[in-house]
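User: Hi! I have a protein structure encoded as tokens and I'd like to know what sequence might fold into it. I'm fairly new to this, so please keep things simple.
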């Protein structure tokens, strides 16, 4: 099997969590390539969680909605939990108006809440010069 063609969508690893974001609307080919690339990374990195930030998406069509649903199912089969974070109100309204369901897709209001749900915590800054912005 040949490795998936890179989509140009950054996928960062934070411990056992992969973090990625959709920076603009994906066409069908890019959505399929992104799915293949992300599932390969889940398996290769042994990721237990994936955060997909969609806060920059202004619209979502039925194909991308279906792709997110299928990606979540694939990730679960590979042992990872997926959280889609940052959905704009207009996108949520459109999904409901079109009768589209993101069945099985967990959502979070923003990336920070999504990471928290995946077990990450914001650590308080230690007192001292670094906390005050001095070297």
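Assistant: Happy to help. Inverse folding works backwards from shape to sequence: for each of the 135 positions I chose a residue that suits the local structure. Here it is:
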């Amino acid at each position: 099997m040949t490795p998936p063609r890179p989509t140009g969508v950054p996928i960062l690893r934070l411990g056992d969590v992969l973090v990625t974001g959709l920076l603009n609307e994906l066409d069908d080919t890019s959505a399929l390539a992104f799915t293949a690339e992300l599932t390969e990374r889940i398996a290769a990195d042994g990721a237990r969680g994936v955060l997909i930030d969609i806060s920059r998406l202004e619209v979502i069509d039925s194909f991308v909605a279906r792709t997110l649903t299928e990606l979540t199912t694939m990730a679960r089969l590979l042992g990872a939990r997926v959280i889609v974070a940052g959905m704009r109100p207009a996108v949520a309204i459109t999904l409901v108006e079109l009768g589209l369901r993101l069945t099985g897709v967990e959502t979070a209001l923003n990336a920070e809440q999504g990471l928290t749900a995946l077990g990450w915590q914001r650590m308080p800054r230690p007192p001292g010069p670094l906390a005050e912005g001095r070297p």
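A useful reference point when you look it over: The chain has one domain: 11-117. Feel free to ask if any position seems puzzling.
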